[in-house]
Amino acid sequence: MPTFVSVAQFMPLSVGDALQLLLACALAIGFLVLFRPLLRGLALAAFLVVRPKLTKAQRLQRNAALASQA
Predict the structure, then answer these.
(1) 24, part of any domain
(2) Average pLDDT of 32-51?
(3) 9 part of a folded domain
(4) CB 32 within 8 A of CB 39
(5) pTM score above 0.70
(6) Burial (CB count <10 Å: 0-12, 13-18, 19+), residue 56
(7) Count of domains in the chain?
């Protein structure tokens, strides 16, 4: 508790400002939770643009090459 008191002394933040900040954080978290599937899809699409999946033929060729090495 002393840490919070010492931090509160150096942060000139009124109750209204604190409530506004808290509401903004709650809304941001709410939107992240609500749009999580969309954000995951966008992240996956961006990842696949950078590093696309191998075709079935390429995977079989890679597996055959790994099997011959072992």
Answers:
(1) yes
(2) 96
(3) no
(4) yes
(5) no
(6) exposed
(7) 1
Asked if residue 6 belongs to a domain, the reply is no
Residue 54, C-beta contacts closer than 8 angstroms, at least 6 positions apart: 62
Please state at what angle helix 36-50 crosses helix 15-34, rounded to 10 degrees.
60
In a domain, 21, yes or no: yes
> Is there a contact between 54 and 62 (Cβ–Cβ < 8 Å)?
yes
Provide the residue range defining the domain that includes 57: 15-69
Taking only the tens place, the pLDDT of each residue in 9-36 is 666 778 888 899 999 999 999 999 999 9
pLDDT at residue 13, rounded to an integer = 74
Q: How far is CA 58 from CA 24, 34, 44, 45, 51, in A?
A: 48, 38, 21, 21, 14
